[in-house]
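re: the backbone from monday

yeah here it is again, tokenized this time
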């Protein structure tokens, strides 16, 4: 019973509640073509809206959408994009922490966002270079929603409780295992008690893995339908680190449990059976 709580609480404390650890988790997404394409579309749409409002129609190039999209794709594929992605996620994560820890902070439109506005500036600069226009194209935020503030507020109490249990639950589990092993009768009994506890870890890890997919779906379903694919990429890569932790616990617990149980069987076999 303690294992799923312990796995989740420890993962939450070490991976989710730490901005550097969170940023390291989502950093590989910067190389994901699907993410880059989705962000290019977001940035291009915002750029086209601004350009059409501020640039006279007579000065606009033919196929404006295609021209701007190509520029946006070049921006997300350049060498500076991975570092931008890290900084943007660090900012979003600090916003997330402000909500779950009830710190002072403002969340635009009730969402935790990743602001890709700096990419828009690069698209504007490329557009002005290719099509000189005497018009100001101002910097602006382009917010990509990740998770609703209301959802985080609802989960704030559970989040804080789990964070507080991150160290106590593993210590309590170790203490209960020690008691179970000590009170067991004989060496064989102690080996089997240890095996039962290890198999409990395997079962707990498996339960966590079963719950991660429904949890991901529940979070992503809160996002606007046209942006769900992008939000899912971010949420899934974070939850995947929990899956990895749970899988390690499940496999490790299973291996240790089997080894201890087999050892108890071998220990109970009479030596040199069949010989006088």
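seq for it, each position gets an aa:
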């Amino acid at each position: 019973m303690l294992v799923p709580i312990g796995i989740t609480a420890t993962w939450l404390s070490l991976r989710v509640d730490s901005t550097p650890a969170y940023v390291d988790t989502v950093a590989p997404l910067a190389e994901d073509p699907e993410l880059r394409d989705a962000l290019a579309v977001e940035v291009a749409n915002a750029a086209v809206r601004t350009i059409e409002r501020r640039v006279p129609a007579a000065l606009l190039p033919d196929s404006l959408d295609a021209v701007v999209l190509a520029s946006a794709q070049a921006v997300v594929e350049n060498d500076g994009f991975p570092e931008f992605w890290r900084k943007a996620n660090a900012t979003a994560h600090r916003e997330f922490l402000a909500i779950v820890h009830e710190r002072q902070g403002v969340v635009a439109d009730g969402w935790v966002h990743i602001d890709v506005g700096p990419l828009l500036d690069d698209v504007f600069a490329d557009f002005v270079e290719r099509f000189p226009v005497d018009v100001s194209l101002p910097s602006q935020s382009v917010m990509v929603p990740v998770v609703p503030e209301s959802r985080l507020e609802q989960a704030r109490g559970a989040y804080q409780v789990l964070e507080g249990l991150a160290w106590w639950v593993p210590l309590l589990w170790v203490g209960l295992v020690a008691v179970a092993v000590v009170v067991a009768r004989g060496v064989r009994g102690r080996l089997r008690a240890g095996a039962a506890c290890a198999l409990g870890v395997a079962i707990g890890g498996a339960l966590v893995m079963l719950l991660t997919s429904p949890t991901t779906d529940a979070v992503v379903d809160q996002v606007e339908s046209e942006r769900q694919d992008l939000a899912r990429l971010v949420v899934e890569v974070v939850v995947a680190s929990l899956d990895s932790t749970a899988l390690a616990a499940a496999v490790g617990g299973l291996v240790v449990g089997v080894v201890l149980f087999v050892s108890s069987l071998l220990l109970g076999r009479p030596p040199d059976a069949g010989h006088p």
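The CA atoms of residues 26 and 237 lie 6 Å apart. The chain has a mean pLDDT of 86.
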